[in-house]
Amino acid sequence: MRRDYWESLCHRWAIGPCQERSQAVKHNRAAHPKKNVHTSGLVSYATHNQKLCHELERAPTFCKLFDRTHKRRGTDDYVSKSARTISETYDKTMADRYVEGTPHPDLDPEAWVDATGWPRKG
């Protein structure tokens, strides 16, 4: 990356809305430590997706990608009860919505929102 681009980004991140958002996120992480336990660290979903694609020799399902980033390495244990509940709820919702053996999307956004309990936005 060119130095002037980098300096411009650093300046942008150091002021105004970026700093406000950073402080809000820092506060939320401290207030809810059990909600912020991921095994992926600084590795993006895209990178995990690429690695899984290489390992499986095909595109991974959304659930496999979720498990990769929400289970402890080398075990079948989720990083939190919340992650386990989300996975189980999503799997059950998908089974209820789609008859086994029929085509269905890899990711059903409505089923995911229902499983996570996130509020619906527009």
Automatic annotation (TrEMBL):
<feature type="compositionally biased region" description="Basic and acidic residues">
    <location>
        <begin position="98"/>
        <end position="107"/>
    </location>
</feature>
<dbReference type="InterPro" id="IPR004252">
    <property type="entry name" value="Probable_transposase_24"/>
</dbReference>
<dbReference type="Pfam" id="PF03004">
    <property type="entry name" value="Transposase_24"/>
</dbReference>
<protein>
    <submittedName>
        <fullName>Uncharacterized protein</fullName>
    </submittedName>
</protein>
<feature type="region of interest" description="Disordered">
    <location>
        <begin position="98"/>
        <end position="122"/>
    </location>
</feature>
